[in-house]
Design a protein that fits this description.
The chain is α/β, with parallel strands linked by helices and 489 residues long. The chain has 17 helices and ten strands. α1 runs antiparallel to α3, α8 crosses α14 and α13 runs parallel beside α14. The longest helix is centred in the first third of the chain and has 25 residues. About 1% of the residues have low confidence.
Amino acid sequence: MRLLSMLLIFLGYMCASTASWMIRKFGKLTYEQIMFHTNIPMDTDVRLIMSYLQNTVMIAAILVVVLYVSTSKISKKHCFMVSLAFFAAAMCWTYQKLNIGSLLAEKNNFQSVGNFYEQHYVEPKKVAIAAPNKKRNLIIIFAESMESTYANTEYFEDNIIPDLTKLAEENVSFSHNDGLGGFKNLKGAKYTMASLVAQNCAIPLRLPIEAARFHPQNGFLPGATCLYDVLAKDEYKLIYMQGTLKQSSGKDKFFVTHGNTQIFDWNYYSARDNLTINKVKKQKGKYTSLFKRAIRDDRLFMYVKEKLTEIAAQNKPFALTFLTLDTHFGTEHFDSKNCQIKYHSKDFLDDHYFKNVVSCSDSQIAEFVEWVKKQPFYKDTEIVIVGDHLTMGDTVFNDTMDRSVYNVYINPSVKVDSAVTKNRQFTALDTMPTILETMGYKIDGHKLGLGVSLMSGEKTLIENGMTIDELNNELDKQSKIYDKLLFGK
């Protein structure tokens, strides 16, 4: 019976510590996020696995050993009753921490069938999309976990993204308020791969109950028409770049499916330049880097500049998208060689660490934009900077904060009326048609997929009387139209 008691202690602590670790690392989880990452390969670094093992299995094992020795004189019955109470309490705490009730409700909603797509989805193939007479180049920066929230001095005592704030003020940036704001998190766009899909294709990334039917090797959303599909028809040179492995979450399959895009990642540059795996020393404090096989942002910007110089010389319109990494979880990597430590107390790796990481990314992105502006091709080039999603984890933010994802459109080909940029309610679904229309494309009706061009002034889904919760609820439901987009048949 004593062994059974220790097993209950071990399992109870494992469940509770796992829940705590998951929320700390990934923030509030959704059913669709869990479904996706259990079916699609992840570029998971060994440090993430070690972090989990150290915070759960190792401590649980030590706790059991200590209790087994220290309770040897306690009656087996009393020991069992205490361990049973602990297990029950741990299960209740885990249930509440992971919000299991909400996850189960979301799972059940997945099984219901709705008609939302039948009412609101606009098939891009059936819409007249006219390219401008003079095609413009496009550079999209997906800034990992970049929130406009970081500019709020009430939350962080200082604006830690001053350069991005300035870019937003001097260019076109859509906001949910009168100042610097952005778009709201949406189910099917709350993690990087899902956001890439939502912003490129104007549909969320949602897997069906039969997730095993989804095989990206057969094409990633083969039935969908995305941004690069439109540009491919107009003979754009299409490039995608990132610092980690392209196979992560099926990004390679997605960009090859849509536009037959040329991809440059860690494998390409490590083979070309003989890059070494990052040696991340164990650090004191809360924050350590996770990715060892990764091109840090300073080098990635260098590679992007190199690639832009190369393709611009070909005198053909191009679109280059790249994804930054250093602000992953808000704390992935601080570039001490190129960035100043602006925020710290006694220990650099304290609660101010994330501020330095975000501030560093802010200055590096702004420096890159300034470099582009000095290039001959800039006059014919639009730069779009968007965050992919809200920062994950619960160590920096709380539920009382008004959070939104950053966006700015630099050097658009058309004038955007300032009246349509403020006090908007929008999501990642609206990015694709907005990019096209700011590039000079004309979209009949200004709508593609589930998105609307923000510069048109047309109302978005959540500006037409639908709340974000109601939209999320509808997107949970099964749809024959969405299945065709997902499977291509």
